[in-house]
Amino acid sequence: MKPALHRGPLTRLGDLSETRYWVYFLLFPSLILLLLVVAYPTLYGFVISVREMRLTRPGLNGWVGAKHYVAMMSDRVFWISLKNTAIWVAAAIAIEVTLGFIAAIALNRNVPGTKLFGVLILLPYFLPNVVAGHMWALLLDPRLGVINDLLVRGGVLSTYKAWFADPATALAATILVEAWHGFPFFALLFLAGLKGIPEDLYKAAAVDGAGPVRQFQLITVPMLRTVITAAVILRVISLVNSPDLLLVLTGGGPGNATQVLSLYAFQTAYREFNFGYAGALSVVMFVILMVFATLYIRFTRVSKE
Amino acid sequence: MTIFKTSRGRRLIADILTYAVLVTMTIFCLGPIVWMFLTSLKVEADIVTSQMQYIPRTITFQNYRAIWTQSNFPVLITNSLVVTTITVAICVLTGTLAAYAFSRLSFRGRDRLMLSYLLVRMFPAVMVIIPLFVMMRTVGLVDSRFGLALAYTSFLLPLFVWMLKGFFDAAPKELESAARIDGSTRLGAMVRIILPLARNGLVASSVFIAIAAWNEFIFALMLTTGQGSRTWPVGLQLMVGEFQLPWGVLAAGGILSILPVVILFAIVQRAMVQGLTAGAVKG
Fold first, then answer.
1. Which keywords does UniProt give here (chain A) (predicted)?
2. Taking the mean position of all CA atoms in its chain, how far away is CA A140?
């Protein structure tokens, strides 16, 4: 069935695919690329963090050791950012997991129309951060915002409120936007997890006299444990790492009410052009994430056994 | 309250509750988008009013015309398209090979290598971008579309590999073995049997990273300095700062930028969801 080819490059490639070198051939391109755009920059990032590197002052370019890390310890903004990052991530994850769970359970029930609802509910996750940010800035605008209008009409508020400009509400308002943008991710993964639970388990439990609540405790939660673990860690990583939404919504303000580590590092690099200090901030972020991930994975494994 | 006693009654209540939840969530998810769409059709006077105007009194496409003519829109969109295309091309070319290797070949350190592909995502974007910026400035790739696409692969390639591996895993091994018995080389079996079987997965994974590349903001903001490679999200953001665009124009810009995402998502939604979940559930 195969035409007799001359020993062209394709045939030779076919021969190569039979050797043990084939696997290296397959992995080589992506590996080189990742080493180039991730591994090398990361190492370079560590190096930058112990050097002085300011784009505005090209002459300054020397080894300063732990200077940036020491400076960080007495940097008030760093500690505020650290605290805000913790609050922001914890609150957003809690809301997103809860909403995601409710959505997944509803979408997993056999009622007509769940497919369409599924598409509509997942949509926010695929929208650009920039657009999501501006859309919510419009919705919550202190003069023209429709949410203010609805709240005033409903008697919840007496006057329009500048949600993002008030230090008391700014962080909460950005968490709301993040929850809107991120909960479909959990709904998606939880739904897949729910679909993987055999129906028989519930039937057996029902025969044994377990009600819906016991079934949820004894079957749904344990069966979803892996999915929940994976989803939470992936989301924590992306929430800690990406300053996009806060950059668009508040820029860290008012004051430092919504300043988080990723945004602080970003602004240090691109507003003050202080790459060395920004590098040190990102290294600290990376270390915190690594410690968190290790502890988290160990903890969830232990509790499984 | 006999309705709670019978199982039919209980199911009816559960169904009603289900729809209540689904409708509420749909309103929560779509409400903002619908509002943006309505705003984009309003004339300025209907947006800036003392009395909130819910439905536009007159429908206008002026905002769309304005964003097209005032915002350098054609250049920005072209840049976004080119960067997205190059990103997808790089990921498909290199990622498909890697995903195949991870799915079908066994070699020493496979699991560890796969995990390190995922670990890449743990590196703070800012941490990678600063050195990337310095590196790219050295080789003249700052503000180039190719350079930006290269930077995108740092976080999209691992995702692509993981997603596609799930689809490769789902393709039956027997067909591949049969082809090998018939004298096909490993390469032949991969190209003629596995790739066609995983075609939907390949499309879905590509669309997923295309959407992510299209939406990307922070890399694009930091690695572009001018018109050479400035993408649409960055353009949109900079417009807000520089010109204080009226909301109507901004809303029109938002609608225009999510349109391709919505269309692509609707087309490959099911396959994409399968792939995403396969990757995450196993990982």
1. Cell membrane, Membrane, Transmembrane, Transmembrane helix, Transport
2. 23
